[in-house]
Amino acid sequence: GAVVSQHPSWVICKSGTSVKIECRSLDFQATTMFWYRQFPKQSLMLMATSNEGSKATYEQGVEKDKFLINHASLTLSTLTVTSAHPEDSSFYICSARTPRGASYEQYFGPGTRLTVT
Amino acid sequence: GESVGLHLPTLSVQEGDNSIINCAYSNSASDYFIWYKQESGKGPQFIIDIRSNMDKRQGQRVTVLLNKTVKHLSLQIAATQPGDSAVYFCAENVIYNQGGKLIFGQGTELSVKP
């Protein structure tokens, strides 16, 4: 099956610094990628949707200047958490979607655990 | 963003029993629904899906039921095993002008007692 990878799998950073998380579709081209955030014991919350070569669409309440998303190619999207603070500590999960016939398939990455100290 | 921020409800079952996990979705225009299993520290894993023009779909040991009248989805797991212990989420594909996006429901933590 299709594989989505994330790097790093976990990261610890100091408050005020920026952190970049990569999401790659390894064996397929993703026309659309999604970024989710998940706090402990809670559901996945969609942050933004990005299509290759265009600006990301952010969900209501998600700061686009704080969570920078770049979808430069059909196999790579990056999420940069700028000026991270402890409240940004969370599990970040990306997802990649690819057309399949008249429909599509969507695959999730393994997640990146971010801890801001 | 969308989705909920409540703590997860839990369901505890005995090994070998059947499990039923329920989910309410919000958008009557959603065309596609998926159940995911998530183990601790991992990403969601696809279990089974169903299109809005269906009301039932069966897989191996799992069945999904869709009731569009009350916007309700359920996942039935037959002969539940300890390896089924995880958090289960339903997700709906919400259509918008740029395509579709998966919005996750609250989730249920399933605990299987041997």
Protein topology:
The complex is a heterodimer of chains A (117) and B (114).
Chain A: E1 4-7, E2 10-13, E3 19-25, E4 32-38, E5 44-51, E6 57-58, E7 67-73, E8 76-81, E9 90-100, E10 103-108, E11 112-116
Parallel strand pairs in A: 2-11
Antiparallel strand pairs in A: 1-3, 3-8, 4-5, 4-9, 5-6, 7-8, 9-10, 9-11
Chain B: E1 10-14, E2 19-24, E3 32-38, E4 45-51, E5 56-58, E6 62-67, E7 72-77, E8 86-96, E9 99-104, E10 108-113
Parallel strand pairs in B: 1-10
Antiparallel strand pairs in B: 2-7, 3-4, 3-8, 5-6, 6-7, 8-9, 8-10
Description:
The complex is a heterodimer of chains A (117) and B (114). In chain A, β7 and β8 form a beta hairpin. The termini of chain A are far apart. In chain A, the strands form 2 sheets. In chain A, strands 2, 4, 5, 6, 9, 10 and 11 form a 7-stranded mixed beta sheet that branches. A 4-stranded antiparallel beta sheet of chain A has the order 1-3-8-7, with no helix packed on it. Chain A is globular, with a radius of gyration of 14 Å. The model of chain A has no long low-confidence stretch (mean pLDDT 93). Chain A is an all-beta fold and 117 residues long. Chain B is mainly β and 114 residues long. Chain B contains no helices and 10 strands. In chain B, strands 1, 3, 4, 8, 9 and 10 form a 6-stranded mixed beta sheet that branches. In chain B, β5 and β6 form a beta hairpin. The N terminus of chain B is likely disordered.
List descriptors.
heterodimer; A: 117 residues; mainly beta; seven-stranded mixed β-sheet; four-stranded antiparallel β-sheet; 0% helix; B: 114 residues; six-stranded mixed β-sheet; disordered N terminus
